[in-house]
Amino acid sequence: xxxxxxxxxxxxxxxxxxxxxxxxxxxxxxxxxVKIDVERALKLKSSGKKFFILDDYRLCPEIRRCxxxxxxxxxxxxEKGIGTFEGDSQPPTSNWEGVIISEx
Length: 104
Fold this sequence. Notes:
Layout lengths: L5 H6 L10 E4 L5 H12 L8 E5 L5 H12 L3 E7 L15 E6 L1
Parallel strand pairs: 1-2
Antiparallel strand pairs: 2-4, 3-4
Helix pairs in contact: 2-3
């Protein structure tokens, strides 16, 4: 198994960096996978405000549930939805392909 496979990277391998200001999370599409990635990213040092970009927010209920829990706990804050679909009849908060959130 590659040291950067999803399973190994999430559960075993240390992150290859210690400081970051913008983090892209395109995680396993499970609640636990997203939660582990966010918790690990929160431990990274930042030179200022730390931003997270999460992919597939619209497509995956588990990603939405995890992100919403972090925002309700006032750990993360929604900044902006990204990647909306033109002509989509869904409410604005449900038609984002991804979201930008920040550490509170």
